[in-house]
Amino acid sequence: MTIVLGIETSCDETGVGIVRMPDSGVPELLANEIASSVEEHARFGGVVPEVASRAHLQAMVPAVHRALTTAGLTGRDVDAVAVTAGPGLAGALLVGVAAAKAYAAAWDVPLYGVNHLAAHVAVDTVQHGPLPPALALLVSGGHSSILAVPDLAGPVTPLGSTIDDAAGEAFDKVARLLGLPFPGGPWIDKAAREGDRNAIRFPRGLTGPRDAKHDFSFSGLKTAVARYVESLDGDVPVADVAASFQEAVTDVLTLKAVRAAQEFGMDTVLLGGGVAANSRLREMAEERCTAAGLTLRVPRPGLCTDNGAMVAALGAHLVHTGAQPSDLGIPANSSMP
Ligand code: KG4
Ligand code: ZN
């Protein structure tokens, strides 16, 4: 049995999670503390790196204390520390990596520097247990990728990614066009519930027969929404635009994820990243996976957006599978592939 504490600071959430990994390999989430600086960024319409770094610095030690208290543990009970080493905002990552090194050194336990995107995939194990080989659709503010994940601890095969905006970025930009607050994804999700998803037929990027099969493009869609909104001269039906835009994004994401799973012979589709919290995406993925005979795995919304549990979950898997710990000198790598 191993207790792993995970630290996440790649963007604007200071996350500290604690996972217990028994010898059976079925992880258990003991704590998941999050302190967000999102409100400090809202008035700028996007995350301000310097503000995020300072907020991490202030939130870090209290968040570790809260997580230990919630789990009913002390630092002496922790067997390993895991931390997001990249990708993400350089200054923000540095705070987490420095803190993780300090805790690992003070508690005299191994340190595991992990990839943020792999952690978005790994978090599902604390809700649904060990992951079989899966086709992962990772959709966040910075990434939109289709990956073949044979094993969490091993190399993944990128099958496709966005050629312009990430899905979350498209949600945030369209929300801004509609006068909704930052970050826009949850607001679009909410507004769309009152709207007609078939009201406006927005373009589905890269879905033509000659287009790159597993890649995404959302900038044309964003421009189409901008043109539509401009053409109305005020009086924008926000709920209908939100619902129609969301329908276009989720249509393409689920179409491509199912197609890739079928092409590469994978029985399980896993959704991860902040956009996987989207209610319509979850609903459509369930419908299309069921129709295609695929098993869908998607963590609860609170585990899809950035958090510390995802890092602890991946760390616990690495310890369980006997992976080599990182050197205490590991750098933060903002552009980690
Ligand atoms: O994974 P995440 O928390 O941070 C990154 O690694 O980027 O993802 C944040 C993104 C933001 O763009 C946010 O608007 C989007 O996830 N998001 C959503 C929803 N909740 C968060 N997008 C659509 N629907 C949601 N319910
Ligand atoms: Zn993320």
From TrEMBL:
<dbReference type="InterPro" id="IPR017861">
    <property type="entry name" value="KAE1/TsaD"/>
</dbReference>
<protein>
    <recommendedName>
        <fullName>tRNA N6-adenosine threonylcarbamoyltransferase</fullName>
        <ecNumber>2.3.1.234</ecNumber>
    </recommendedName>
</protein>
<dbReference type="GO" id="GO:0005737">
    <property type="term" value="C:cytoplasm"/>
</dbReference>
<feature type="binding site">
    <location>
        <position position="278"/>
    </location>
    <ligand>
        <name>substrate</name>
    </ligand>
</feature>
<feature type="binding site">
    <location>
        <position position="189"/>
    </location>
    <ligand>
        <name>substrate</name>
    </ligand>
</feature>
<dbReference type="GO" id="GO:0002949">
    <property type="term" value="P:tRNA threonylcarbamoyladenosine modification"/>
</dbReference>
<feature type="binding site">
    <location>
        <position position="306"/>
    </location>
    <ligand>
        <name>Fe cation</name>
    </ligand>
</feature>
<dbReference type="GO" id="GO:0005506">
    <property type="term" value="F:iron ion binding"/>
</dbReference>
<feature type="binding site">
    <location>
        <position position="120"/>
    </location>
    <ligand>
        <name>Fe cation</name>
    </ligand>
</feature>
<comment type="similarity">
    <text>Belongs to the KAE1 / TsaD family.</text>
</comment>
<keyword id="KW-0963">Cytoplasm</keyword>
<keyword id="KW-0819">tRNA processing</keyword>
<dbReference type="InterPro" id="IPR000905">
    <property type="entry name" value="Gcp-like_dom"/>
</dbReference>
<dbReference type="InterPro" id="IPR043129">
    <property type="entry name" value="ATPase_NBD"/>
</dbReference>
<dbReference type="InterPro" id="IPR022450">
    <property type="entry name" value="TsaD"/>
</dbReference>
<keyword id="KW-0479">Metal-binding</keyword>
<dbReference type="Pfam" id="PF00814">
    <property type="entry name" value="TsaD"/>
</dbReference>
<keyword id="KW-0408">Iron</keyword>
<feature type="binding site">
    <location>
        <position position="185"/>
    </location>
    <ligand>
        <name>substrate</name>
    </ligand>
</feature>
<feature type="domain" description="Gcp-like">
    <location>
        <begin position="28"/>
        <end position="312"/>
    </location>
</feature>
<dbReference type="GO" id="GO:0061711">
    <property type="term" value="F:tRNA N(6)-L-threonylcarbamoyladenine synthase activity"/>
</dbReference>
<keyword id="KW-0808">Transferase</keyword>
<comment type="function">
    <text>Required for the formation of a threonylcarbamoyl group on adenosine at position 37 (t(6)A37) in tRNAs that read codons beginning with adenine. Is involved in the transfer of the threonylcarbamoyl moiety of threonylcarbamoyl-AMP (TC-AMP) to the N6 group of A37, together with TsaE and TsaB. TsaD likely plays a direct catalytic role in this reaction.</text>
</comment>
<keyword id="KW-0012">Acyltransferase</keyword>
<feature type="binding site">
    <location>
        <position position="172"/>
    </location>
    <ligand>
        <name>substrate</name>
    </ligand>
</feature>
<feature type="binding site">
    <location>
        <position position="116"/>
    </location>
    <ligand>
        <name>Fe cation</name>
    </ligand>
</feature>
<feature type="binding site">
    <location>
        <begin position="138"/>
        <end position="142"/>
    </location>
    <ligand>
        <name>substrate</name>
    </ligand>
</feature>
<dbReference type="InterPro" id="IPR017860">
    <property type="entry name" value="Peptidase_M22_CS"/>
</dbReference>
